[in-house]
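worker-3 :: picked Alginate lyase
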Amino acid sequence: MSLLSLQTKLTAGVMSVVLAIASFSSLAAHPNLVITQNDVIKMRSALDSKGHFSERYYSLKSQVDQEIAFPSVVPVPKDGGGGYTHERHKKNYQLMYRAGIIYQLSQEQKYADYVRDMLLQYATLYPSLDVHPKRKVKSQNPGKLFWQSLNEAMWLVYTIQAYDLVHNALTDQQINTIEQQLLRPVALFLSEGQPTTFNKVHNHGTWATAGVGMAGYVMNEPEWVEKALYDLDKSGKGGFLKQLDLLFSPQGYYNEGPYYQRFALLPFVTFAQAIAHNEPERKIAEHRDGILLKAIDTTIQLSYNGLFFPINDAIKSKGIDTIELVHGVTVAYSLTNDTGYLDIAKQQGQIILSGDGLKVAQALDKGLATPYEFKSAAFGDGNDGKQGALVVMRTQVGGNQALLFKPAAQGLGHGHFDKLTWQFYDHGNEIVSDYGAARFLNVEAKYGGRYLPENNSYAKQTVAHNTVVVDETSHFNASVSVGNRNAPTLNFFETSNVGTVSSGEISTAYNGVELARTLALINVPELDSTIALDVFDVTAQAEHQFDLPLHYKGQLIDTSFALRANTTQLAALGSKNGYQHLWLKGQAKPKNGLAKVTWLNDNGRFYTQTSLVKGDESFLFTQIGANDPNFNLRNENGFIRRVNGQKKHTFVSVLEPHGEYNPSKEYTLEAVSRVTKLEYSQQGDLTLVELDIKGKSYLVAINKAQNATKNTFTFKNKEFTLNGRLGVYAMKNNQE
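worker-3 :: tokens ->
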């Protein structure tokens, strides 16, 4: 090759690099993250029209005006979660973000000045900080402004957007100070300074990579973007894209459960928008067959009456109006124009001031919302969708009802030891309940707002849930690492006009013990009601004690058997694995036949669990609160069905909603259970349950075969045909 040719080739190579850098740099016009310059133009033009968008703008502007009327406060970090300095820094990043938006839309300099001054205050403070003084949890990386680096990453996600929004109002010297003394140190602290968290496939890693990647776009650091996407060494073993690949199932279910799914949704959605606006050629919305959109929709599906199903470490008051899902729904509608998302946006009652938010607002103004469809579905767990599933059964027969079944994976460190547990909801309320997390979020007086010790000693333990406990020992011996390696198997899921049925099993929760559960939410339109059928098979190689708890919400009304209550003195049910936190309030040993427990829920309905017993089961009535010196736990009620010295046992029961209690109008209807017969039998792969309820007889057939083909069977000298998994047959004088 001639020297001239070589020089020409090198020059071309250099020019290509220069052009690539120039291209990235040109994209750094501000704002350029979630809100773009084109968005700003459209949003400004919408402010003169009445509607959802202008109403939200003027409302937010009024709030921001009130807040910026006071001097900004950037305190030296001192307090843990929920304390003054923690909440002040949290409020600061939210205020800077909101003020930045108002600046872009109003073009009033005072809003940019406020953000500028606060950023400069942080730029003075941050270089002087060591790690946070309240760091206590050894397994978590500390922040500097906050007690854990997770909150530091959240601060960066919001603050980099605020900086982007006011960037063009700053002088070169101010930009240099803010970037060199604040934003760059924070980004490097969260990435190179904490590589384990940054590279981790976990919600902490999601927030960190989102913050650093967005900072890369704003500050023209393409290397930061690459590291955020592909891991610090750009190997692809970690980073944002690997989190999209591993943390969600193909259906969009997040491994840690709905509560953490909505929490992680914001950095996923926000960084994805930044990627789409700056590097559309990456086609981030199409990544993994549109996994982000699936994740948003699944987050909505995993809610009931506006609240998320509280599995794993969940705060039970979190629902679809959380800001993370507001952002998610906004993006989902923008991507799909699906008017069902407008229904959710309407329920959320919040408009995001962004280009996508404007689209939602204008659609709501036009009345385009249509009812969002909540479905019965099995959401596969694990990145391959084959590590069990979270099953949701829904029906509108007799009222809005949902049954949640959990043959799902462990859920990492936030997971609970509750394989094959279930919950039930009716008429807007939780009926068969799950404790959720033992935590007073951001209430510093309660253990600094962190998870309470009882989260480990009770809430995560198996007895705190509605599933079988063997020998008073939790699943996997309460080992997260073992739990993460062993997921249940979803045997089947099917929904039809007669109801929904699902079955799951696991043989690794205990050595030498197989657990298999089948649950069905069955429509009984003749009674304008439903029933929930539960068949739990336990098979062991040696004799054990089997406990099956049921935690219920409401007041105990009646039992069909004599109950020996402890009225003068209480003792804990056990000494460990959660049993030490349960008061034993009473016990009984029902005779062979039907054992009924009835309670009244706050929704004014009665609920009866009718259990089929053979005289070998004890019923232990419990209340949470033993060995709880700081009164950290809620005093909720439950009962445990117990058998001793068994190798094999099948727990069979039916949950029946019935009646009504109206204290205002002083009437009570059908307070007594209507179930008069419950019989259970097996025919090969068929489970057969005969049920008499309110003078009507039904046969329920469930096909557990590996492949549920058309099945003809005989029951009481009559022939029946079952197509699929679940069949419900009205019986009268042994006639179909």
